[in-house]
Amino acid sequence: MGPTQFAVLSNVILVCEPDKCPIASGIDLHDARGFIFCQLWALGHAADPQILAKDGHQVISSGSLPMKESSSVPKPLTGDKILDWINDYFHAKKDAITVGFTGVEIHGVISYLCDQFLQVTCNTQEDRWAAASRIGTGYRISPWSTFQGMRMEDLHPQFTHLTRGLRRLNLAYLHVVDPQTSGSTTVEVAGEDNTFLFDAFGNTGRYPGRRLSRARNSRYQ
């Protein structure tokens, strides 16, 4: 592990060993009543096959559909392999809490592994894993993003169903990416908004009272 790295273990981005983590020392966030969340994510079919091959690994995903025509065909995760990944996320959360994070956010957006299980553009499984995994604490979704070949034609039913399911898990928060955000760029959109998710989740997070009203009447109208 290099001097600037603090989040690598196995195939998932995780926090480092508790006694070596730079996050845990020098930051008195908790004393200042602050919060810090560790974002957990994995590339899936967006990974570089040449880098993986050096360690004897393959590109994996929820199905065998490549990210784009020029990309490698991923190996679908099935059965015990999926459970191994879930277990990795579980241990990542424990490690994050151990070194001082308030909690974790599951990075379920823009065509990375969790998003690949959610959307039918790449998830070709027909068993119990055909639906999105219920992994919690904090969850991030990007319904409208076309980044890296994603975005379903009829996204409302799928993301409404997911959001209602996440609501029942009593998450710390749900992080929904604006339609104007695609990857790391801002795009012009018309007629796209996240209003349909407000009622589905039932908790408006950072939009209390008048601020929620202003958001509904302007940005999300």
* Count of alpha and pi helical runs: 6
Quick check: average pLDDT? 73
Count of individual beta strands: 8
Could you give the order of strands across the largest sheet?
1-4-5-6
CATH class reads Alpha Beta
User: Can you write the helix and strand succession as a string?
Assistant: EHEEHEHEHEEEHH
> Quick one: biggest sheet?
4 strands, parallel
**CATH topology descriptor:** TIM Barrel
Using only C-alpha atoms, the radius of gyration works out to 18 Å
The CATH architecture = Alpha-Beta Barrel
- Structural class assignment: alpha/beta
The CATH homologous superfamily name equals Aldolase class I
Between the first and last Cα atoms, what is the distance in angstroms? 47 Å
| Outline | globular
Helix content: 25-40%
Q: In terms of per-residue confidence, which ranges show pLDDT below 50 for 5 or more consecutive residues?
A: 1-15, 131-136
Pfam family, one: Oxidored_FMN
GO molecular function: FMN binding; NADPH dehydrogenase activity
InterPro entries: Aldolase_TIM, OxRdtase_FMN_N, Oye-like
Protein name: NADH:flavin oxidoreductase/NADH oxidase N-terminal domain-containing protein
Helix and strand arrangement:
Elements: E1 37-40, H1 49-54, E2 60-61, E3 75-76, H2 79-98, E4 103-107, H3 113-118, E5 138-141, H4 155-168, E6 173-176, E7 181-182, E8 185-186, H5 195-201, H6 209-217
Parallel strand pairs: 1-4, 2-3, 4-5, 5-6
Antiparallel strand pairs: 7-8
What does this structure look like?
By secondary structure, this protein is an alpha/beta fold. It has one domain: TIM Barrel. It has 6 helices and 8 strands. The strands form 3 sheets. Strands 1-4-5-6 form a 4-stranded parallel beta sheet, with helices on one face. A two-stranded parallel sheet has the order 2-3. The protein has a two-stranded antiparallel sheet with strand order 7-8. β7 and β8 form a beta hairpin. α4 packs parallel to α5. The longest helix is centred in the middle third of the chain and has 20 residues. The termini are far apart. The relative contact order is 0.12. The N terminus is likely disordered. This is NADH:flavin oxidoreductase/NADH oxidase N-terminal domain-containing protein. One of its GO terms (molecular function) is NADPH dehydrogenase activity. It holds the Pfam family Oxidored_FMN. InterPro entries: Aldolase_TIM, OxRdtase_FMN_N, Oye-like.
